[in-house]
Each structure stands twice: as structure tokens, then as C-alpha cells.
Write a structure and sequence with these properties.
Blueprint: H1 2-18, E1 26-29, H2 39-52, E2 54-56, E3 77-79, E4 86-90, E5 97-98, E6 134-138, E7 160-162, E8 184-186, E9 208-210, E10 217-218, E11 232-234, E12 239-242, E13 256-258, E14 263-267, E15 281-283, E16 288-291, E17 305-307, E18 312-313, E19 329-331, H3 347-351, E20 359-361, E21 368-370, E22 384-386, E23 391-393, E24 408-410, E25 432-434, E26 456-458, E27 465-467, E28 480-482, E29 487-490, H4 494-497, E30 504-506, E31 511-514, H5 528-531, E32 536-538, E33 543-544, E34 560-562, E35 590-591, E36 613-614, H6 642-648, E37 657-661, E38 664-670, E39 677-683, H7 690-703, E40 712-719, E41 725-732, H8 739-743, H9 745-753, H10 757-760
Parallel strand pairs: 6-7, 7-8, 8-9, 9-11, 10-12, 11-13, 12-14, 13-15, 14-16, 15-17, 16-18, 17-19, 19-20, 20-22, 21-23, 22-24, 24-25, 25-26, 26-28, 27-29, 28-30, 29-31, 30-32, 31-33, 32-34
Antiparallel strand pairs: 1-4, 1-6, 2-5, 3-4, 35-36, 37-38, 38-39, 39-41, 40-41
Bound molecules: 2-acetamido-2-deoxy-beta-D-glucopyranose (11 copies).
């Protein structure tokens, strides 16, 4: 395995040079006075110098850069009023490949120094530092390597420096502090190391500073208090440390503070909210903050998002947060909140005043007490309500049906009692319902069948009784049904097993009886095609009787079948060793071993057949740090079927279309088992190279844990229902800003495979880790 990965890596590394680079840059030069001496000729030569180093030009921009046209008419060039000098160059998004020519440094006449031989291939040529008139420089989303040139200090007129999404290394040069006109500084998604330079504090005009997704360390310097105009500050996903940086308390203009995934620690000052009257988004997740949530946040009345997951916060949620009328998002997942008192949840009452609330995540804390009925008065806008893994008792109120926009409801691993209210059937937007491990009694309401958007239904480990409602057969998006470990009786309704969407049924440890569906005694045998998607069927520890229906042997997609401890009789002739992997379609990577089925008639235990080996590298896929070490989670097949993606994307509907490009189309999807929101890139296989790109891209992505990148969660390589090859990649969904990465595989491969690829590999992660008990909330840090 290792050697194949290594050889793969060297293969990808070479592939970088063959692949199209996305060369996306534009900058403008301030209009300089009319040429001193043949200035226009110098500009022309410089532009030809640029052209000469372009190796790929798919849209043939440079064909127009020829002698038959005056160079002031060449595409992408902007000239000054007297058409003397080039003042701007915009070649954004043209998929050019090559290197940035040092000749571009000649576009200004101000420097006549000797031009160094250009051996910087993928680096930012230092000659660019001659462009002292530069106001705007955008080289983002390229493959630029090397360090940020220290001579950038010559860019004294620069207002926007945008170098994000490259693989720049080294420290942020302290000279950046000379760019005192800078308004935007974007260096995020690079491999920068070292400290946050104190000189950045000199940038007193700065409004937007993004250094997130790098490897910066150390504390924030006191001088950062001087950036008085700063509005957006993104420092997430670095290794910065210290307390919540004291200098920030001087930055009262801040609207966004993103510090998640760093090593910050200590208490948050209780008066924190008073210092940020303009604050809209506060992201402090996955650090080591302790103490309580500052009650003063109630006074930061513009707050939209509060995100504190995975810290060591104690105390409770301040009731005053109910004053935040605009609050959309409150996430305190995995802290130590709650006093263990019966009134722990009283704050929920005040949150009913947050009339825009869309997401409330209280999971994995220490809240006890009774679920307040007032949750039914939370905003009807609420889409995600997660309170799992606390010790919350009480019952699910009937009026929960007020929350008509709920898409994900997770109250698992609590102490809830009473029945599942019939009214649950009115939550028709529900995609995931998780009530695992409670003390729920009564029946599964037949109204559950009205939840036609439901993708998973998890009810194991309760005290539910009665029959499995046949109405569940109406849930035609249902992918996983887990009802094990209850007191259910009766048969598995045929309507259910005939659901073509269903892939997994966990029904073990109940008192199900009667013949298995499909048995000829039970009416017609379901259409083969209907059954072909079921991958797992676990009916162990029940009491069904009669003979094992033969159709089970024909379920070609079945990966897991457990009929042990039942009263079944008869023989089951499974197909031996099916190993279908053609190079073209790589359909089902399933090696079904041989089976043996022994039968013990009328005895209360017997047998079983079961087998399955995944031919996959499933161990190394988990790359979502927030999902690690869930004791109750179960990793299923990390690869996803066409059908799952079809469901997640609403049949690849145009509503879910978020973009398309030459390599494919990107859809937003709400993912099955855990409610995760994902971006699904369906590759356009007509495009030359797309297929090759798929393999390379997936391989590169899945083996590397690199925080700079949109995370690939899984991949699907199979055929669609028309037996056409179908290939798709599934990415973690980030609401904004990453479309380029989804659409341009070439870039991802490049970023991932450069230089330190082996160092970045991590084999201990599992991509789609479908947790039965804890749906994760997608990372919505749209603006880190
Ligand atoms: C350069 O400018 C001079 C006058 O300013 C003009 O005569 C000449 O044609 C220009 N050359 C080019 C290549 O535009
Ligand atoms: C840029 O200027 C340098 C010297 O200033 C010269 O050597 C070089 O040839 C020029 N490049 C172009 C493309 O004009
Ligand atoms: C030169 O560019 C023009 C358009 O700007 C184009 O029509 C012409 O075909 C080009 N000539 C050559 C030789 O490519
Ligand atoms: C940077 O600027 C300094 C002084 O202007 C000069 O000596 C040095 O050669 C420049 N370095 C590069 C790489 O251009
Ligand atoms: C910029 O900041 C550094 C470090 O804080 C300081 O030493 C230097 O004097 C400052 N320069 C300017 C021009 O303000
Ligand atoms: C920060 O604010 C404090 C008072 O809140 C003030 O004393 C201090 O001078 C400020 N620091 C800067 C660098 O503005
Ligand atoms: C909010 O501000 C008001 C007025 O400054 C103050 O009286 C109140 O105590 C503050 N509330 C909190 C929760 O800090
Ligand atoms: C909601 O706001 C109203 C008006 O400000 C207030 O009277 C009421 O007490 C608040 N309700 C809760 C539960 O905080
Ligand atoms: C919900 O709000 C309505 C109207 O404000 C109120 O009459 C009702 O008592 C509230 N229900 C609960 C359970 O708090
Ligand atoms: C479910 O739908 C049926 C008709 O489709 C309707 O009669 C019934 O009232 C619904 N049940 C609930 C709880 O909404
Ligand atoms: C089949 O189910 C029984 C009872 O639930 C369980 O003990 C056994 O481990 C299962 N077999 C496999 C191979 O999973």
C-alpha cells in the first residue's frame, strides 16, 4: 500500500506540470506620466516577455497579442488616457499556465536595474517590486511557491494585496508593515510559518486581514491594537496561542473575529461584548478556552453567529443572548456547559426571542433537567436543532411541529421519555431524525411516513413497541433505517423493503416475527430492481420464522446480512466471490466471501451468513477533526453510491446547482446519514482528462490532510442508472468562496502534491464516518 501511494505521488507530482494551471491575476498600475523615452515600447516588450512564458492558453488570449494590432488593443490590457502607458492588466480566470515573467517589472519606468535571469519558475518574481505605482495586486488561486518577496516594501501605493490560495512558504516579511496604504491583506490558505509580524500593526488603514489556514504560531503582538479600522479578521486554522488577544479589545470596528482551530486558551473576559459593538461573527471553536461565555455578548446587538464548539467552557448560556434579535447561529457543541441543575435549560426560554435563529447546537455538554416546552417557541426559521449527548429528560412536546423548517433534529443519547408525538409527521422538511438511546416508549408514529424528505431515521436503543409502520414506505428518500434494540413486533413491511432509496436496515434485537418480506407466502416477490440497493440488512435477534426468501441471495448490492439468532429455516445460496472491478467502471468494490448457512430448525438460534470485505483503503479517510473519537460512531463504506448522491442533491436538481465548469458541475447536497451538507462535483467525462483527473484528484485529496483545502469527504465512481460512467467527488461544503477549488481539480492536485506530500499524509482518518448517534454540523465558517 505504501509503495503504491508513493509511486502514485511521484506520478501526480509530474502531472502538475502537465496540468493546466489556473492563473488568475490582475493588477493595475496607477497612471504614470507620459513616457519619458519610448515608454510605450518598453511596455510592449514587457508584455511580450509575459507572453513568452505562458505555456498554456486554452482560450487563446495571447493570439490577439500580435503585430497586426496595436498593443494597446491587446486583450486584458488597460491603457492610460493618452494611450501611452499600460496601466492595468487583467488576465483573471483564463486558465493560463506558465510562470509570471519578471519582465512585468518593466511595466513601470521607474526602475532600470538589471533584470535578473528568471529562474523563479513558480515564484513571485522579485522584479515585480519595481512596480511602485501598484495599487492592486491579485495573484490568488495560483500555484505560487517560494517566499513573499521582501522587496514588496516598494509597493508604497498598494491598497490590496491578495495572495491567498497559493503555496507560499516562509514568514510574512516584516516589510509588509511599510505598505501603509493597505486596505486588504489576504494571505490565507498558504503554508506560511513564523509569527504574526508586529509591523502589521503599522497598517492603520487595514480593513480586512485574512491569515487563516497557515501555520502561524505565537501570540498576537501588542501593536495589532493599532489597526483601528479593521473590520474582518481571519486567523483560523493556525497554531496561534495565548489568551484571547488583548490588543483586539482596542479594535472596536471588528465585524468578524475568526480564531477557530488555534491554541488560544484562558478565559474570555466577561465584558468582551462591550468592546465590539459592530461584531457580527465570532468564531472561537476548537481552541482551549475555559470559563464562561461572556454575558456581555448580549450587548453586541449586531451578532449573527456565535460559534464556540470544542472548548472547555463551563457555566451556562447567558440568558441575555435572547436580546440578540438577529442571531442566526449558536453553536456550543462539545464543551462542559450546564450546572447539572434542573433549570439548566431555562436559557432556551429566552432564545425564543431570537426570531431569526436557524441553528442551535447544544450537543455534548452537561445540561440536565427537563426539556423545556418552550423549545416549541424557538424561531420557526430553525433548521438544525441538536441537543444530543446531554442528560436531558422530559418528553418531546407535541408542538415541536411548530418548527416547520427543521431539517435536522438530533436529541439522541439523552433521557427523553414519553412517546414520539404523532405531530412529528408535520416536520416535512426533516432530512435527519436521530433519537437513538433515549427512553422513548409507544409506537413509531405512522405519520413518520409523511416525512418524505427523510434521509435517515435513527431510533435504536429505546423502548418502542408495536409494528414498523408500513407508511415508511412513502419516505422515498430514506437511505438508512435504524430501529434496532427496541421492542418492535410484527413483520418488516414489504412497502419498506421495496423502497428503492433504502440501503441499510438495522432491525436487530427486536421481537420481529413472521416471514421475511419477499417470501412468496407474503404476496408477490418485490421487483428485483427495487431491492438492488439494499446493502445492509441486519435482522439478527428477532423471531422471524419460515424459510429464508431466495430473493435475498440475489441482492447484488448486499454487503452485510445478519440473520443470526432467528427461527429461519432453509438454505441460502449466495453467489460466491463476486469481485467486479473493471478498470473502467470500478463498480462495486466488494468481495463477497463464501458463506455458509447452517440451519437449526425451531431452535432459537442459528446461523448466519455474512461476509464482506471492502477492498478499500477505508482506514485513512477521516479528515474531519471535529468528528474524531466518537465512541458510538460506526464507519461504513467510505465511498458513496450514485444513488446516495442522487438523493443528497435532490436528483442533481438545478435548484442545488452551485456552479459548473469545464471539468464538471457542482451541486450542493444534504448528506444522508449525518445530515452533513456537502458539495458534490460531478465530473464531465466528455472532457478530455476528466477521468484521469478524477483518480489523481481523489487519490491526492484523500491521502492528505491539509488544512488549506476544501476537504474531500468521499468519491463515487460507478455508473448511473443508464449505465453511463459516473464519477463524482464529495467535498465539505463551505458556503462561500471555494467554488474555484471544487471546479478546478488541477489546482487541488497541485497544491496537495507539492514537495511535502509525504509529510502531510495521514492514514488514520476516515472520510465519511457515518455516526449513528451524532450527526455533525458542517463547517460553516464561510468567512474565516
Ligand atoms: C510610442 O509613442 C510615440 C509617441 O508618443 C508614437 O509615435 C509611437 O507610435 C508609439 N509606439 C507604439 C508602439 O505605440
Ligand atoms: C526589462 O528591463 C531590463 C532592464 O531594465 C532589460 O534588461 C530587459 O530586457 C527588459 N525586459 C523587457 C521585456 O523589456
Ligand atoms: C492577431 O490578432 C487579431 C485579433 O486581435 C486576430 O484577428 C488575428 O487573427 C491575429 N493574427 C494572428 C496571426 O494570430
Ligand atoms: C530588493 O531591493 C534591494 C534594495 O532596493 C536590492 O538591493 C535587492 O537586490 C532587491 N532584491 C531583489 C530580489 O530584487
Ligand atoms: C512599523 O512597526 C515596527 C514594529 O512594530 C516598528 O519598529 C516600525 O517603526 C514601524 N514603522 C513605521 C513606518 O511605522
Ligand atoms: C488600547 O486601548 C486602551 C484603553 O482601552 C488604551 O489605553 C491603549 O492606548 C490602546 N492601545 C492602542 C495601541 O491604541
Ligand atoms: C448592556 O449594556 C447596558 C448599558 O451599557 C448595561 O446596563 C448592561 O448591564 C449590559 N448588559 C450586559 C449583559 O452586559
Ligand atoms: C422577549 O422580548 C420581550 C420584549 O423585549 C421581553 O418582554 C420578553 O421578556 C422576552 N422574552 C424572553 C423569554 O426573554
Ligand atoms: C409559546 O408562545 C405562545 C405565544 O407567545 C404562548 O402562548 C405559549 O404559552 C408559548 N408556549 C410555551 C410552551 O412556552
Ligand atoms: C399525514 O398525511 C396524511 C395524508 O397524506 C394526512 O391525512 C395526515 O393527517 C398526515 N399526518 C400528519 C401527522 O401530518
Ligand atoms: C450478527 O448479529 C449478532 C446479534 O446481533 C451479533 O452478535 C453478531 O456479531 C453479528 N455478526 C456479525 C458478523 O456482525
Amino acid at each position: 500500500m505504501k509503495s503504491s501511494l508513493e509511486s502514485f505521488n511521484s506520478h501526480t507530482y509530474q502531472a502538475i506540470h502537465a496540468v493546466l494551471l489556473v492563473f488568475l491575476f490582475s493588477f493595475s498600475l496607477k497612471y504614470a506620466a507620459p513616457a519619458a523615452f519610448h515608454g510605450n515600447e518598453t511596455d510592449k516588450l514587457a508584455l511580450l516577455g509575459l507572453k513568452s512564458q505562458i505555456t498554456e492558453d486554452p482560450s487563446r488570449v495571447f493570439a490577439s497579442w500580435n503585430e497586426s494590432v496595436h498593443f494597446c488593443r491587446w486583450t486584458g490590457i488597460k491603457f492610460g488616457p493618452r494611450e501611452e502607458r499600460a496601466i492595468g492588466l487583467n488576465l483573471k480566470g483564463l486558465i493560463l499556465a506558465g510562470i509570471i515573467s519578471g519582465h512585468l517589472g518593466n511595466l513601470s519606468l521607474l526602475n532600470s536595474r538589471h533584470l535578473a535571469e528568471n529562474s523563479f519558475h513558480d515564484e513571485i518574481p522579485p522584479q515585480l517590486s519595481r512596480l511602485t505605482s501598484l495599487q492592486y495586486l491579485n495573484l490568488s488561486f495560483n500555484y505560487l511557491t517560494g517566499e513573499i518577496p521582501v522587496n514588496l516594501s516598494h509597493w508604497v501605493n498598494l491598497e490590496n494585496l491578495v495572495l491567498d490560495h497559493n503555496t507560499l512558504v516562509g514568514q510574512i516579511p516584516y516589510q509588509v508593515g511599510s505598505l501603509t496604504k493597505l486596505v486588504k491583506l489576504y494571505l490565507k490558505n498558504n503554508n506560511l510559518t513564523g509569527i504574526f509580524p508586529g509591523s502589521i500593526g503599522n497598517l492603520t488603514s487595514l480593513e480586512e486581514l485574512y491569515l487563516s489556514y497557515n501555520n502561524l504560531e505565537g501570540e498576537l503582538p501588542a501593536s495589532s491594537a493599532r489597526m483601528a479600522k479593521l473590520k474582518l479578521l481571519g486567523l483560523s486554522v493556525n497554531s496561534l496561542s495565548g489568551e484571547f488577544p488583548p490588543p483586539f479589545y482596542n479594535l472596536s470596528s471588528l465585524e468578524l473575529i475568526a480564531l477557530s482551530f488555534n491554541n488560544f486558551s484562558g478565559n474570555l473576559r466577561s465584558d468582551l461584548g462591550h468592546y465590539f459593538p459592530n461584531l457580527q461573527k465570532l468564531y472561537l471553536g476548537s481552541c482551549q478556552f475555559i470559563g464562561s461565555i461572556p454575558s456581555s455578548l448580549a450587548n453586541a446587538s449586531k451578532l449573527l453567529q456565535l460559534d464556540f464548539p470544542e472548548n472547555n467552557l463551563t457555566g451556562n448560556i447567558p440568558k441575555g443572548l435572547g436580546n440578540l434579535r438577529n442571531l442566526l447561529w449558536l453553536n456550543v457543541h462539545r464543551n462542559h456547559l450546564g450546572y447539572g441543575k434542573h433549570d439548566d435549560l431555562d436559557f432556551l426560554n429566552s432564545l425564543t426571542n431570537c426570531s431569526s435563529l436557524k441553528m442551535l447546537h447544544l450537543g455534548d455538554n452537561q445540561f440536565v433537567g427537563t426539556l423545556p416546552h418552550s423549545i416549541v417557541n424557538l424561531s420557526s426559521q430553525i433548521q438544525r436543532l441538536l441537543i444530543f449527548r446531554n442528560r436531558i429528560g422530559g418528553s418531546i412536546p407535541r408542538e415541536i411541529s411548530n418548527l416547520v423548517n427543521l431539517n435536522l433534529l438530533d436529541m439522541s443519547n439523552s433521557n427523553l421519555t414519553g412517546r414520539i408525538p404523532d405531530s412529528i409527521g408535520r416536520l416535512t422538511n426533516l432530512g435527519g431524525l436521530n433519537l437513538v438511546s433515549n427512553l422513548l416508549t409507544g409506537v413509531i408514529p405512522s405519520s413518520t411516513g409523511n416525512l418524505t424528505e427523510l434521509v435517515y431515521l435513527y431510533l435504536p436503543r429505546n423502548k418502542l413497541k408495536g409494528n414498523i409502520p408500513s407508511t415508511l414506505g412513502n419516505c422515498n428518500q430514506l437511505l438508512i433505517l435504524a430501529i434496532s434494540d427496541n421492542h418492535l413486533t410484527g413483520t418488516i413491511p414489504q412497502q419498506l423493503i421495496a423502497l428503492s432509496s433504502l440501503t441499510k436496515i438495522y432491525a436487530f434485537y427486536n421481537s420481529l416475527t413472521g416471514p421475511l418480506p419477499g417470501n412468496s407466502l407474503q404476496g408477490t416477490i418485490p421487483n428485483q430492481e427495487d431491492l438492488q440497493d439494499v446493502q445492509s440488512l441486519d435482522l439478527s435477534l428477532n423471531n422471524p420464522s419460515g424459510s429464508i426468501p431466495h430473493f435475498i441471495a440475489n441482492l447484488t448490492s448486499l454487503l452485510y446480512l445478519n440473520l443470526s439468532f432467528n427461527n429461519l429455516e432453509g438454505e441460502l445460496h449466495l453467489q460466491p466471490c463476486v469481485y467486479q472491478e473493471t478498470q473502467k467502471t470500478r463498480k462495486k468494490h466488494v468481495l463477497a466471501l463464501k458463506y455458509i448457512l447452517t440451519i437449526v430448525f425451531a431452535a432459537s438460534f442459528s446461523i448466519l451468513a455474512l461476509l464482506v470485505v471492502f477492498l478499500r483503503w477505508r482506514r485513512n479517510l477521516k479528515d474531519r477533526p471535529e468528528q474524531e473519537d466518537r465512541s458510538e460512531s460506526a464507519c461504513f463504506n467510505p465511498n458513496i453510491s450514485y444513488e446516495e448522491l442522487r438523493i443528497a442533491t435532490g436528483g442533481f436538481s438545478s435548484e442545488n446547482l452551485i456552479g459548473s465548469g469545464s471539468f464538471g458541475t457542482v451541486y450542493k447536497g444534504t448528506f444522508t446519514s449525518d445530515g452533513m451538507v456537502v458539495a458534490v462535483k460531478v465530473l464531465n467525462l466528455q472532457h478530455q482528462g476528466a477521468s484521469k483527473s478524477f483518480t489523481a484528484e481523489y487519490q491526492a485529496l484523500r491521502n492528505i490532510r491539509h488544512r488549506n483545502l476544501v476537504k474531500v469527504i468521499s468519491a463515487c465512481s460507478s455508473s448511473d442508472f443508464k449505465e453511463n460512467d459516473f464519477k463524482a467527488l464529495v467535498f465539505q461544503f463551505m458556503p462561500k468562496g471555494n467554488l474555484d477549488e471544487w471546479l478546478h481539480p488541477e489546482k487541488e492536485i497541485h497544491e496537495k502534491s507539492s514537495l511535502t506530500i509525504l509529510q502531510r499524509m495521514n492514514h488514520n482518518r476516515c472520510g465519511l464516518c457515518t455516526s449513528l448517534s451524532s450527526p455533525s454540523v458542517p463547517n460553516t465558517h464561510d468567512s474565516l
